[in-house]
């Protein structure tokens, strides 16, 4: 009896030795990860099978480093459960992972929304919850994450408006595509320093792309607005985006002429305006773009192809 008791206690003793309770960060992480494990309703790949016991740094998908503000303490700095096929929800206890810098959850089946407690994650730099079943309004907690640079919420069921202050954040990349957002591109879009901006397959309302888009001239490399219900005009200012390499405006309801200023986008490699209602002549300036590899303009009402 006593021997059995000792055997059961052994794993506890050895882990207590490795992570003495003097590390409150890992204790909080333990609480958070156990709560999460309970909120996971299906785990076909048995990813959380080893999520037990206090050695959280050994859990599959959990990565520890020395804490920034106390290098003698280990802390959970990253969680990568990409392609985990996990079902369930994101519990409020995730707010206890206050040293988390990376949270990668793409290609799972998490439902619900991002808990407001995530605002505790002041070091969070990359947040990727793409390809899940999250829903509700725009997850506004992301607006409160001061370190956030990479935000990927594509392929979910978020709906409603996109808050304009999103474009005031110092992000490097923003993926909103394949949701159910209905929004007009706000005037302050030009404040956004992103290099990649993907709006595709949402519903964009409003009349014109703001002229302030020209303010993104030094940073924007990719702009993808395909299948977004755009009926609006594309202002000539777009031609000032001289760093842009990929512009996809296909499968919208764009009308009128294609602006000749597109010929000023000297870095352009891919240009797709197919499946719109554009008319007139294709500006010859497009053919002079030095890096253009693929220009797709089928399914429009262009009267004349550019002469080379
Ligand atoms: C899941 O993983 C744990 C720990 O890695 C293991 O003990 C358990 O047998 C696994 N379960 C299944 C169903 O494979
Ligand atoms: C847990 O991680 C420690 C290092 O932190 C390592 O020495 C040990 O082998 C790991 N245990 C298991 C079961 O993976
Ligand atoms: C936020 O972090 C603090 C400090 O780490 C912690 O005490 C608190 O419980 C956390 N709040 C939430 C909602 O997780
Ligand atoms: C469209 O382009 C044609 C020349 O291709 C020009 O005559 C016409 O004025 C343009 N229309 C608009 C609305 O810019
Ligand atoms: C050019 O782009 C179109 C649509 O963007 C794509 O379908 C096609 O495969 C591309 N062609 C080449 C040669 O890359």
Between the first and last Cα atoms, what is the distance in angstroms?
91 Å
Biggest sheet strand order reads 2-3-5-7-9-11-13-15-16-18-20
CATH topology of the largest domain: Leucine-rich repeat, LRR (right-handed beta-alpha superhelix)
- CATH superfamily of the largest domain, by name, is Ribonuclease Inhibitor
Give helix and strand order, one letter per element, not per position.
HHEEEEEEEEEEEEEEEEEEEEE
The biggest beta sheet reads: 11 strands, mixed
Q: What class, by secondary structure content?
A: alpha/beta
How many strands in all? 21
Total helical elements? 2
Structural notes for this entry:
With 308 residues, the protein is an alpha/beta fold. 11% of the residues lie in helices and 27% in strands. It folds into 2 domains: 157 residues, Ribonuclease Inhibitor (Leucine-rich repeat, LRR (right-handed beta-alpha superhelix)); 148 residues, Alpha-Beta Horseshoe (Leucine-rich repeat, LRR (right-handed beta-alpha superhelix)), CATH 3.80.10. The strands form 3 sheets. The chain has an 11-stranded mixed beta sheet, with helices on one face. The longest helix is centred in the first third of the chain and has 17 residues. The protein is elongated and about 70 Å long. It starts with a helix and ends with a strand. The site of one 2-acetamido-2-deoxy-beta-D-glucopyranose (NAG) has 3 residues, from loops. Keywords: Cell wall, Cell wall biogenesis/degradation, Glycoprotein, Hydroxylation, Leucine-rich repeat, Membrane, Repeat, Secreted, Signal, Transmembrane, Transmembrane helix. One of its GO terms (biological process) is cell wall organization.
